[in-house]
Design a protein that fits this description.
This is ABC-type oligopeptide transport system, periplasmic component. InterPro entries: Peptide/Ni-bd (IPR030678), SBP_5 (IPR039424), SBP_5_dom (IPR000914). It comes from Furfurilactobacillus rossiae DSM 15814. Keywords: Peptide transport, Protein transport, Signal, Transport. GO terms for molecular function: peptide transmembrane transporter activity. By secondary structure, this protein is of the alpha+beta class. The chain folds into two domains: 232 residues, Alpha-Beta Complex (Dipeptide-binding Protein, domain 1); 234 residues, Dipeptide-binding Protein, Domain 3 (Dipeptide-binding Protein, domain 3). It is built from 18 helices and 23 strands. A five-stranded mixed sheet has the order 1-2-11-10-9. Helix 10 runs antiparallel to helix 13. It is globular, with a radius of gyration of 23 Å.
Length: 537
């Protein structure tokens, strides 16, 4: 999630002087942390890469599907076969022909076990995807084929309600096998060892640097609508510096810190770009410390922690940026029931779970300590130190938990995001302050994470009841939208009850924006930033 957090902090700047049309159509963006990879098969976030990689569709305004590399598509009556017809004469940024076999190669490469893709689980439901990724079947058995140069056929094991939305995600974009073979281990280690299918191509990225650029891709099928000639990126991790540059009218859009939001919320240049991002606590259910492992696996102790956090105070006083109090693991505004028009977040709510009830919390904690035969415990919270929010949240949690739960000591271990993510993957934590942003507008984009053996289930929680509910939603009830919705509601309610993942707040992001930048498309899930139609007045 390091990349995802960094990409959510992107800010745009316009050229500070008048010049040619090309000069005017240059944007400058900043990121809080460096970009760590541009390999589609190995990436851990796709917030900006939809601008250089394109799949069958793109995300337009309000998450709507807009045309991509496919000119048309057909779906079988049983919902299990999709046929995509590519646009004629598609080309890669280097002039190579882009054909149907590039999609086949890309998907096979991602699911090859040695690739170790952390996003492989999103292929779940595509014929043989899980077996291929587990090394139990040949990549040639994967449910994707290219009967000719312009046709891609995808076979599913079951209907997938959100399949078309997935096909707008850069993860499913094509890759050029000739380029992969040509560069070998160098592939995707630098922007020059990559080719691009989207409206822009990348230059100047060397794998570790703090500067890179997107430039207009003149081989792109829809290049005539792309107004920007260049987007430059620079890592600037300080929001105060961003505002200073903005006030000099060199920035068109700058991300605000929590304190800055309080100062600028009445400014006419103030903008909010909401995103379906949940900050939560991960518990390590295989903790190496025997005592801590007993505590973490104790239901009463986890519930006590969840009931000890005053989320209203956290969002309003500590953060103060428009972040919201959650009702469960799935953010509000992500998905609505087609039948009764209710927000999923309102239906997942369970009393006495994600709430502030310190008296009940104290009682449950005392019970939990007795059950594990301990009078006190010390847990360590793994957090990050390179963003403006996590240190505040970590200190708030320490204050809340130690005040409301006598016998608990919460130590804080704050390290850089990349290191924290690595330790999380290795299971080197007691509790981890973490976050997740939706990949598409469906509850399962969050509810897949707690399933047994998913890549981002760092704490290795495993529960057959929960797994069965998600499996039912994805299989037996996949073609019945009403039953599927109820399966997911029950799963999220169960997650609230057991608190294997403890929601803290639903994030919001605020900016100052000048009036000379127009046409930015920002989505609440999936690829957040779409600059295909952006221009400077």
């Amino acid at each position: 999630m390091t990349v995802l957090l960094a990409l959510m902090a992107l800010v745009l700047t316009a050229c500070g002087k008048k010049g040619t049309s090309s000069d005017r159509q240059t944007l400058k963006l900043s990121a809080q942390t460096p970009l760590d990879t541009i390999d589609l098969s190995k990436a851990t976030g796709y917030g900006q890469t939809g601008n250089v990689f394109e799949s069958f569709y793109r995300l337009g305004k309000k998450g709507s599907l807009t045309p991509g590399l496919a000119k048309s598509a057909e779906v079988s009556q049983d919902g299990k076969t999709y046929t995509f017809h590519l646009r004629p004469n598609l080309k890669w940024s280097n002039g190579d022909a882009l054909t149907a076999k590039d999609f086949v190669y890309s998907w096979r490469r991602t699911l090859t076990p040695s690739t170790k893709s952390q996003y492989a689980y999103l292929f779940d439901g595509i014929k043989n995807a899980n077996r291929v990724n587990a090394g139990q079947a040949s990549v040639k058995s994967l449910g994707i084929s290219a009967p000719n140069k312009s046709t891609v056929v995808v076979q599913l094991e079951r209907p997938i309600a959100y399949f078309k939305l997935l096909m707008a995600y850069p993860l499913f974009a094509p890759q050029n096998q000739r380029i992969v073979d040509k560069y070998g281990k160098k592939y995707a280690t630098s922007s020059k060892y990559m080719v691009y299918s989207g409206p822009f191509k990348m230059t100047g990225w060397n794998g570790t640097g703090n500067h890179w650029q997107f430039v207009k891709n003149n081989q792109y099928w829809d290049k005539k609508v792309v107004k920007l000639h260049k987007i430059t990126y620079q890592v600037i991790g300080n929001n105060t510096t961003g505002v200073e540059i903005f006030d000099q009218k060199k920035l068109s859009l700058t991300l605000l810190s929590n304190q800055q939001v309080k100062n600028y919320k009445d400014d006419p240049r103030f903008r909010q770009y909401p995103y379906s991002y949940m900050t939560y606590l991960k518990w390590n259910f295989h903790d190496s410390d025997a005592t801590n492992n007993k505590a973490i696996n104790n239901l009463n102790i986890r519930q006590a922690v969840a009931l000890s956090v005053n989320r209203a105070q956290l969002t309003e006083k500590v953060l103060g940026d428009g972040s919201r109090v959650p009702t469960g693991f799935v953010p509000g505004g992500l998905a609505t029931d087609a039948k009764n028009k209710k927000d999923f977040a309102s239906e997942q709510k369970v009393a006495h779970t994600v709430a502030y009830e310190p008296t009940l919390a104290k009682k449950k904690f005392a019970t939990g300590l007795k059950e594990i035969d301990q009078k006190k415990i010390t847990l360590t919270l793994l957090s990050t130190d390179d963003d403006g929010t996590s240190p505040m949240v970590a200190q708030f949690l320490k204050s809340q938990l130690e005040k409301n739960l006598p016998g608990l000591t919460l130590n804080i271990r704050s390290i850089p995001s990349k290191a924290a993510n690595q330790q999380g993957q290795k299971g080197e934590f007691d509790i981890m302050l973490s976050g997740w942003g939706g990949d598409f507008n469906d509850p399962v984009t969050f509810l897949q994470i707690p399933q047994t053996n998913t890549a981002y289930n760092y704490g290795k929680w495993s529960d057959t009841k929960y797994d069965d509910l998600i499996d039912r939603a994805q299989n037996a009830d996949a073609n019945d939208s009403s039953k599927r919705w109820q399966d997911l509601v029950q799963a999220s309610q169960y997650l609230n009850q057991v608190q294997s993942f403890t929601p803290l707040y639903q994030a919001n992001y605020a900016y100052l924006q000048q009036n000379n930048v127009q046409g930015i498309i920002h989505n609440t899930a999936g690829t957040q930033w779409n600059y295909k139609y952006t221009s400077i007045k």
